[in-house]
């Protein structure tokens, strides 16, 4: 975690990334600074997808379409609201790989020791993505304790989707075959969710327009009767 020294603390808190090259397990991370979390996470997602494809081989046509929809639909749907409508993100210094194997007790059995970090100034909820993974069933109890210190970001109703989105980062890892084969299903879940939400909004908008047309028609009829 020493990659962001005190001398750069203010700069780190206003931007997303880290000041030094870091690794996620044995994988080098792309650490370009960005003012926008949406911009940084989109670049990072593309980076890890491209690396996974180079390792595994070309995506099928269906997989390529899923990847495109995930980047173009899911990411802006659930990231952009964090930094719009008067909302903003204050990046937090995250460990980003806080699985149980990276947390041990010192010899006194009292003081916990956290190590093997892949530090990053990021949206605080990124830290919780790992615990959505079925491999680490620490979920709800840990979330509730975390939220006592760091409340859920607004819009709160998008948390579940953001949590799945951040979990996918831990599954797109070429060195871990069992993870790499599970992320397309989670990506599809979010793409389907976004498409369903868009359909609901369209139905609601069409219904509102239809109602407004009917009101306008009734108003016109009343005007005719009045004359």
From TrEMBL:
<dbReference type="InterPro" id="IPR016477">
    <property type="entry name" value="Fructo-/Ketosamine-3-kinase"/>
</dbReference>
<dbReference type="InterPro" id="IPR011009">
    <property type="entry name" value="Kinase-like_dom_sf"/>
</dbReference>
<dbReference type="Pfam" id="PF03881">
    <property type="entry name" value="Fructosamin_kin"/>
</dbReference>
<protein>
    <recommendedName>
        <fullName>protein-ribulosamine 3-kinase</fullName>
        <ecNumber>2.7.1.172</ecNumber>
    </recommendedName>
</protein>
């Amino acid at each position: 975690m020493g990659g962001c020294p005190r001398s750069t603390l203010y700069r780190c808190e206003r931007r997303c990334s880290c000041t030094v090259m870091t690794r996620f397990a044995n994988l080098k991370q792309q650490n370009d600074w960005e003012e926008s979390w949406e911009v940084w996470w989109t670049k990072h997602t593309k980076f890890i997808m491209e690396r996974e494809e180079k390792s595994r081989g070309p995506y099928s046509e269906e997989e390529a379409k899923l990847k495109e929809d995930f980047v173009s639909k899911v990411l802006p749907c659930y990231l952009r609201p964090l930094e719009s409508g008067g909302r903003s993100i204050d990046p937090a210094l995250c460990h980003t790989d806080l699985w149980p194997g990276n947390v041990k007790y010192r010899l006194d059995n009292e003081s916990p020791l956290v190590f093997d970090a892949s530090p990053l100034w990021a949206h605080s909820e990124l830290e919780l993505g790992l615990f959505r993974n079925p491999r680490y069933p620490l979920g709800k109890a840990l979330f509730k304790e975390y939220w006592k210190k760091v409340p859920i970001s607004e819009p709160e109703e998008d948390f579940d989707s953001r949590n799945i989105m951040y979990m996918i980062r831990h599954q797109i890892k070429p060195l871990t075959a069992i993870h790499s084969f599970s992320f397309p299903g989670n990506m599809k879940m979010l793409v389907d969710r976004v498409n369903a939400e868009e359909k609901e909004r369209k139905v609601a908008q069409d219904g509102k327009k239809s109602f407004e047309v009917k009101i306008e028609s009734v108003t016109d009829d009343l005007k005719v009767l009045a004359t």
